[in-house]
Amino acid sequence: VLTQSPATLSLSPGERATLSCRASQSVRGTYLAWYQQKPGQAPRLLMHTASSRATDVPERFRGGGSGTDFTLTISRLEPEDFAVYYCQQYGRSQTFGQGTKVEIK
Amino acid sequence: QVALVQSGAEMTKPGASVKVSCKASGYTFTTYDINWFRQAPGQGLEWMGRISTNTGNTNYAQKFLGRLTLTTDTSTTTAYMEMTSLRFDDTALYFCARDVFIRSSWYPCDYWGQGTLVTVSS
Q1: B107 vs A contacts (CB less than 8 Å)
Q2: Greatest CA span in chain B, whole angstroms?
Q3: Which of A79, B22, B38, B41 falls between 20 and 30 A from B87, CA-CA?
């Protein structure tokens, strides 16, 4: 089970966002990904193996953590970053956290 | 360029079945597995299962065993998701996405279909 916090983050453009994802058991192989989803769209892969940015993901997105505790940090929020973010344990089977909504304050 | 294009929205009745397609292009189809996910209105993402496009082997999430069948047609580079005995709470946006196990490591879903809305209504 993956538990994300907070459920909602209300911030202004230019601010820093820190999202948390906690696993009930150690994530094998650090197979932890982060996705961004906007309304009516498919998820977009941001990070894999906890801290590796996917193709074309801006450097303001940074992932970290290991074992059971992981974070996604957005250093300075751009208008297009306001969305829902999911962490995912992937591999042979997959589970998602319940999501964190980053909304404009 | 890589693309996964899904079939159109479906409206169906409780107890019926639905079959959604996912047409892949822009890459070698049998190199990547195809996963299926769903997202109920206003809810999070749920993994349903995976099919190896190379071997046809499948891996289903426990809650869908017996109701879900994943298949592929390599001649048309298309994957299919069929679910039977539909219930009202199966109403959701269904996605396909590709992932891969390469050099002894998994790589997560990097390309997704646009989603297919399945509505179960009487």
Answers
A1: 48
A2: 48
A3: B22
